[in-house]
Amino acid sequence: MVVFMWYQHPLAAVFSIFAYISVGVILPIWNRRRTADSGRNYRNNLGELDNFIINSTYGIDEILQYNQGSARLDEMDERLQNLYYTQEDLSVFEGSQKAVTNLVIHFFSWGMFFFMLILYINNISGFLQLILATLAMISSFGPTVALSSLSNNLSQTLASGERVLSLLEEEPTVEEVSDKEATSFEGADIDNVNFSYGEETILENVSLDIKKGKVLGIHGVSGSGKSTLLKLLMRFWDVNTGEVHISGKNIKNVNTEDLREMTGYVTQETVMFQGTIADNIRVAKQNATLEEIQNAAKKASIHDFISGLPNGYDTNVGELGDSLSDGEKQRIGLARAFLHDGDFLLLDEPTSNIDVLNEGIILKSLSEESAGKTIVLVSHRKSTMSLADETYEMAKGRFS
């Protein structure tokens, strides 16, 4: 375009160079300095929201077990509000940026017209050159670029909206119960239960009586159905046939909040949430004091390790707990269960990632904590079963 302007008049080429540098270099640098903080805040908030959602998805078992759904939703709402405000700031900057850019484009377009008009009046340039140079300047800024990209942005927005709507319309696997009489734990039993994932049978004609105040052990190899049994006791899923009873009631007639309150659940793989170690233990009890958290950590044989860290309980665990070993995560999971202090404790391979020394300390703590509590202990380790008052062998979805 500069060459074309040169053919109209060399001064028009010089004027156009200055215009293009102003719009293509000076303005973007100026705008970048103005919007840098807002853009950075928006991206940071968006990234943190993404991590929070992924974190929550990985930790759905812990969230359900410790009845933290409302708290996580409140935190998500707060993060969405922060994202909205930073996006609003960014939109204001982007709007002003477009306004200033358009103003500058108009300035140079009219500037070219009057500049060439002066040359024409002084017989330095012809009328045709006046028209061509002005039209070339007006058209060369590409005002249709923003319009052409609008369709792409809009299609992406609509596609994202469809994905969000499909997620919102997803039916829950189990409907929560909130309108039944309050229930406290008085024992549990499983009556002739069958359960399958699709065509694959996981549990077949399983019956089990879990007496209050007893420690019941279930031993078996991986894949035998032990973990599934615990999840049915938590009512993460409903059985295909048969019934699960809590305190003599069908589990479907027990308020979900009551069930979560009375039950402590330690999974095979403890999920860490973004935040400090104290925050991760506090998942089990939002209003817990530091002293309560420390006592729970001592019972889980993790207090000495945490105290030895430079920031102690304020140490950030990193995304999904990447800064902790599997054994350390598992002991934090146990600390959560101790802090929650439910009457019905379900332990799924609670010492699978822990060395023999720490296993002994944890089993001792569980033995001391078992007074007045009912514990179902699942493990493939024979040594873990030493805590149980009664032990069952499970293989291929049945008790042998």
Describe how the helices and strands are arranged:
Layout: H1 2-8, H2 10-58, H3 60-65, H4 69-121, H5 127-140, H6 144-168, E1 188-197, E2 200-210, E3 215-219, H7 226-233, E4 241-246, E5 249-250, H8 256-262, E6 263-266, H9 277-282, H10 290-299, H11 303-307, H12 326-340, E7 344-348, H13 356-369, E8 374-379, E9 390-395, E10 398-399
Parallel strand pairs: 3-8, 3-9, 6-7, 7-8
Antiparallel strand pairs: 1-2, 1-4, 4-5, 9-10
Helix pairs in contact: 1-2, 2-4, 4-5, 10-12
GO cellular component, one term: plasma membrane
Main location: membrane
Keywords: ATP-binding, Membrane, Nucleotide-binding, Transmembrane, Transmembrane helix
Question: Could you give a short description of this structure?
Answer:
By secondary structure, this protein is of the alpha/beta class. The chain has 13 helices and 10 strands. It is 55% helix and 14% strand.
Number of strands: 10
The CATH architecture of the largest domain can be given as 3-Layer(aba) Sandwich
Major beta sheet summary? 6 strands, mixed
Helix-strand string: HHHHHHEEEHEEHEHHHHEHEEE
Q: Mind telling me the C-alpha Rg?
A: 33 Å
| Number of contiguous helices | 13
Would you tell me the structural class of the helices and strands? alpha/beta
Amino- and carboxy-terminal Cα gap: 86 Å
Shape: elongated
Percent strand: 5-15%
Count of structural domains? 2
Q: At the fourth CATH level, what is the homologous superfamily of the largest domain?
A: P-loop containing nucleotide triphosphate hydrolases
Here the CATH topology of the largest domain equals Rossmann fold
| Low-confidence regions | 143-156
Quickly name the level 1 CATH class of the largest domain. Answer: Alpha Beta
In round numbers, the mean pLDDT is 80
Strands in their spatial order, largest beta sheet:
6-7-8-3-9-10
Roughly what percent helix? 40-55%
Keywords: ATP-binding, Membrane, Nucleotide-binding, Transmembrane, Transmembrane helix
Domain ABC transmembrane type-1: 1-156
Membrane topology: Multi-pass membrane protein
Domain ABC transporter: 188-400
